[in-house]
Amino acid sequence: MAGECYGCVSGIAKSSLQYFVIDSNEALEFKLVRSPADLDDDETTFKPDMSHQVYGDSEQIFGYSGLRIKLYYSACRLTTYLSHTYVEKVDPEKFEGVEPDEVIKPIAERIPPGYLTSLNDFTAAVQKDASFRPFGEMQRRFAIDLESGEQKTFEVYLCDVSTTGFLEYHERMQTFILWYIDAASYIDVDDDKWKFFVAYEKYQDNGNPQYAFAGYMTVYEYYAYPSNIRPRISQMLVLPPFQRIGLGAEMLNSIYSYYKNDAKVLDITVEDPSDNFARLRDFIDSRNCLKLECFQPPVLLQGFTEAMVEEAKKKLKLNKRQVRRVYEILRLHVTDRSDKEAYRQYRLDVKNRLNVQYKKEDRDMEKLKKFLKPEEYAATMTITSRDQRLESLERQYAELEEHYVHVLERLASAELS
To answer: Of residues 4, 88, 168, 271, which has the active-site annotation?
Structure first.
């Protein structure tokens, strides 16, 4: 593990060796190279969100000063270049035999073999991107207007494990998750239930179309009795050069568009969503539900109904838990928070749902009480006190409302744009 040898050094040497400790997030630099000019353009460089999955929890590399780790990809084919440079390297003979950490090996073990180490070879490979065409079937094409006034065109393609040539491409594509998705793991591509929605920016170079990889989403199609499927969104990645422009929302809508008219799809779920994805999903689902009859203001103010569940499930493939969440977001939207009674009723509605977990706890403990001896029952007592419950409910509610307000602010911005 990076930094372990450094941790064993005596106090006398540590102060000198601190010069050779570097943050691995700072040392790493990525590029999606469209032309040789990008190699010397700092504006095309982007950084990882994390590096602990490669360089250890401390996210430090020992043994170098001025370390730069270059992990470059050709923008279309994702041909990979890996190298590093440094100003100075620690001399073990001068510091109690302490060796510098491995720099290239931890990355090389996690990316497909055949990566390039010669910049000349990589530059030549970039030229081959001109003939690249996306794998699979195009699902959607859309344009996104940037704040700068520029407009970019994107296309989303659907692939599966049988798509000719895609698995090799996927091996390179999925390496990005190491740096941008916490607790990331590579998926089993031998399973034909996986679907891949891959997004590209389509741009022109000398009058010819080219396709720069921008991100992707994976979906696993679970079997649902008797002959249905329940797609579950597993991973979502939008690379930094394409973030905060609305691409993630369009990618999620691409998945919804693909499944919403499929009679075999019961509903769409999400596997362990991050906070960022939860906000994105809530925004898209709320925006889509605003168009439905059961989510109009007069209906929302009357409370949560099964009709909401049925309509959102039938037309948008949302599951019941997500429908309830969307209802709470949109009811907050139509609730006059300056009206104390209306606002109080809203808070009670949400807290009653949050309180369900404690009611279940009470029921479970009552069942145990019937079968256990008094001393055994006392030993299993885990019921949360009333004060603890109230404190927990207040905290959960406050966090939820803050999240809901952020979603509503984005909805308002989307309506204005």
So the answer is: 271
